[in-house]
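Structure ticket #2291
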Amino acid sequence: MATGETMLSRLFVVNVGSGSAEKEAKKAIASLYNALGLSQYLDAHKFALIKIHFGEEGTDRFVRPKFVKALVSLILQTGAKVVIGDTNTLYPGRRSNAADHLSLAAQHGFSVDSVGCPVMILDGLVGRTATTVEIDGKHFKKVELAYDLQFFDFVFVVTHFTGHIAAGIGGSIKNIGMGLATRSGKLAQHNAQPLKVDKEKCVACGVCAKWRPQGAIEVDETATIDDKKCVSCGWCISVCKHHAIRFSWEISHTVLQERIAEYAAGAYKLLNKKVVCFNFLHKVHANCDCGRDGGEVLCEDIGIVAGYNPAAVDTISMRLVEEKAGEDVFRRLRPQIDHTVQMRHFAKICNLPVESELVRLTL
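Resolution: structure written out below.
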């Protein structure tokens, strides 16, 4: 993909709210799409993916389907085949397996009837279909990503920009790094402690032991994990239908951000940089969209930032939120987190600038 230095160093923003009429939403997406010259990368022989978070059950914190529908329409005009998709979560819930995940997506307005293209879960029924990509990272030398990702010719990363309890912010880099990883990949990013079996939930069905590598699990009255043999592959988490495998979320904020950035860099490499990012700065909450409690509203609607450089898109998004709020809200909220680590680490690995020129579009 020949985006060129000019396009990599330039971002675009358009002021449009989440409550805008469908006609205005279409106009906003079209203005960004055309400014970025996206049609030149698509044709009847291409597969395009719109990577998106479908939202958690019981919340409305996700990009509105009308914007996705507008983007789908533009992609289809090139003759390309397009799907919208996500991967399964590490934690239990309706996004932890493809059956429930697709049902929830439809409930939130993401279906072929509502947005005009198929919906898929990229890492299979329980988050185990994977491809491995070699990287030269500080924490990883290889990363495990959703298997079907490698077959897409172009990926549109559509992100609802938020704060994040552990990473400071949740933007395009997190949507790529965490959002395109398998459940094992998510575990590798989050976990720093040995896996444990919840004896109260375990029914000794033996499914986890069937899938164990290295012979790390034995089953008697309950399953037991041998810490010395366990390689933290996450298979047991994927196949346990009783959610009896526990892992720790406790990890350094800096290490977590670096791990996310390295997974994002792996995806960027796999896709040969065929990525464009759309950050939606709509009712930006203190917490990410993976939990039911969004926390404090840091600012109301600003608009959409788009560009080819994920690090720069996240950096500019962060600054626009700070400008709108009149303060560094992310630093105020979580002073212990340097939330710029992820952008700087990703940019260093991928040899990209963290800063870019911002061009404001008018509708």
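Closing remark: The radius of gyration is 20 Å.
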